[in-house]
Amino acid sequence: MKHRLPLVPTLLVGLAIAVMIALGIWQLGRAQQKEAALDAWRANLDLPVTAYPRQNPTDERFMFRRLSANCLRVVDWQVIGGRSREGQTGWRHIAYCATGAEGPGLIVDMGVSKRPDVKAEWAGGPVTGVATHEPDNSSLIDRMQGKAPPLRLMIVSDEPAPGLTASAPPDPASVPNNHRSYMVQWFLFAGIAAVIYVLALRKRWSTEAPRD
Q1: 3-state secondary structure the chain
Q2: Dihedral pair phi/psi, residue 127, rounded to 5°
Q3: CB-based contacts of 163, cutoff 8 Å, min separation 6
Q4: Which residues contact 193 (CB under 8 A, 6 or more apart)?
């Protein structure tokens, strides 16, 4: 006895499975892009010091490279949690600097204190250190919707401000690369959806009254 597939449910399930497979393939591409970027960033650790890219401060080609810049004056400070070079937890002091007449143009991690209310005694000057991303202050919803602005480069200064301890230098090993696991999850979801639908069809067909 032949059984007919229900048209609309089959189309919906097939579409859902196709979308999940497409998402898995997309995550595979993202994984390959991230792996290439990590290889380049690891290589940056061995490159000589170069100038901070003022014209394109979001250029990720400079991630984890040693950069030098000059902070003309500190416009603002941000204090967030972090670790010192020795691995001790504390409060990072992020300086937002002017590099010209148009306001903040440079972001520098000037070191860690044990208390958040410590005032960093630093008004600006030349800085050198390893580049990483600035703190991400965008909301989760903005990030999910793609509305968050690209993160700028931040220099983690080799020399801390007076009264602070040098922050832990950025390490490419700390950058997450979970895209392959996400890929596997999407493929598993697609397989599970297919199995569940086949089982549902078999159950439906087994309860149908036989036809003469």
Answers
A1: CCCCCCHHHHHHHHHHHHHHHHHHHHHHHHHHHHHHHHHHHHHHCCCCCEECCCCCCCCHHHCCCEEEEEECEEEEEEEEEEEECCCCEEEEEEEEEECCCCCEEEEEEEEEECCCCCCCCCCCEEEEEEEEECCCCCCHHHHHCCCCCCCCEEEEECCCCCCCECECCCCHHHCCCCHHHHHHHHHHHHHHHHHHHHHHHHHHHHHCCCCC
A2: -135, 150
A3: 113, 118, 120, 121
A4: 13, 16, 17, 20
Pairing mode, strands 50-51 and 153-157: unpaired
Nearest to 16 by CA among 187, 181, 188, 190: 190
pTM: 0.73
CA distances from 116 to 80, 128, 129 (A): 8, 24, 23
Neighbouring C-alpha atoms within 13 Å toward the C-beta of 60:
14
Query: What whole-number distance in Å separates Cα of residue 187 and Cα of residue 31?
Result: 15
Q: How many CB atoms lie within 10 A of CB 17?
A: 17
Span 5-38, pLDDT tens digits? 888 889 999 999 999 999 999 999 988 888 988 8
Q: What pairing do the DSSP bridges indicate for beta strands 89-98 and 125-133?
A: unpaired
